[in-house]
Amino acid sequence: MEAHSCCLNKYLLYGLLVAGSWLLSCLLPLHQFSHVSLFRYPYLSSHRRAGPAGAVSLFPSPPAIHDDGTRTSCEGRRVYMLDLPSQFNLLRDCVDGSPAFEDEGSACVLMSNAGLGPVLAPVSGNDTDHVIPGKGWFNTNHHALEVIFHHRMRRYECLTADPAAATAVYVPYYAALELNHHTCDANASARNAPSGEFLRWLSSRPRWAALGGRDHFMLASRTTWMLRLAPGGDGATGCGNSFLDRPECLNMTVLTIESNIWDRRDMAVPYPTYFHPSSAAEVAAWQARARETRRPWLFAFAGARRPNGTRVLRDRLVDKCVASPGRCGMLDCSHGLVCHSAERLMSLFASSRFCLQPRGDSFMRRSSIDAVVAGCIPVFFHEGSTFEKQYRWHEPDNNGGEGDVVHGLRRYSVFIDEDQLLEGKVDVEEVLGRYSDEEVAAMREELIKMIPRFVYKDPRVRFEGDMKDGFDIAMDEVMARTTRIRNGEDLGWDV
What we know:
The protein is α/β, with parallel strands linked by helices and about 500 residues long. The chain has helices spanning about 1-25, 105-110, 145-155, 175-180, 190-205, 205-210, 245-250, 280-290, 310-325, 340-350, 365-375, 385-390, 420, 430-435, 435-450, 470-485; strands at about 80, 170, 215-220, 255, 265-270, 295-305, 330, 350-355, 375-380, 415. The chain is about 30% helix and about 10% strand.
């Protein structure tokens, strides 16, 4: 009887604590840059440095509205953010005390710190001074961009509570995280059902009716291919679904982390990296470090062979790297979670002049963006992997045009034709060895200038300084696109 009473008291206390936390978050006044934290992860402190106090919650209190309708700088840029029912909140089980936080691989931990993930402790390398600096670096999962983007929208300066005053409507649905709930052997109906239910709810909202959803936008941190599973009934193979091919999504602007470059209506934003600065000074300090670090390797490759020789180019590059031990640095991703180590990856890339970026499961690789941050010149082998085709919003304008291409050089990158390499007409080491120290330094400088455009700021704090990051650039383009749609323009292929 005493044990039963003890259990009841324990659960009663737990319930009161949860209710009290919820009530406190509702009652505490919010100002423009406050952030109420409900979740903390003390168990990470043994091997992860604690994050800023009060800044590790997944979902703090409701979003603060920054614009009251009088700010002239918000004309044509106001955004209304939908409030989704709890059934569509895919992180609703990430509550304080949940056993999910005991598993470092759980979504609750991976999406902590507003999607940034656990804080990375400072790490020094043999060839670089502090590969991971003491601030601004997180163990970020690439599927977390949906959560990061959502939290950045919460602080968007032109967020409005009046849907009638908004130019665009942001839809904070996590299509990629939802897809993670299904195994690849699940039938197509099971993989499509949850997102289909959400889209039916979305299209029934009053605001949707105004323009049929054409003023709505969202982000899905998956490649476009994973969300465009070809129809084939329940027996359709693959790990994806048909989310982007639904009529509702054909009306919306849906950003992904890799686009179909042959469809100009597909728009991509860069993968998230491990670096999430909170000030322009942090970015400048890292740029200086990337500029000055010693780079003993001519080229580097982080990856693995594909089974059954399905990616012959990868096999050829691995063989080349093994055969060039004094010039190629390699991170073999075929052994466990080696390539999931931010420390090892950034140490390799920061120690190399060029970083090889062959196709993986699709055209784009997250390591291409990690290479930018490390100041390692990316080497592409297919046009679908290049920034000018994938991230045309984020590639600097002065890098466009045939005049900037000199024997495979686009100022900040190198292009080697995959077919010519496989046919033995060119050799990677020979091609990269032709560039002089001066040319390499010039390319690296262009790359380092691009770093702000390819990182995402820490969404939990007010950014100090003037700098546009990947989110800011994407929002400028989305708002310009939505304005044209609201003005009745038929964008067609011109996006």
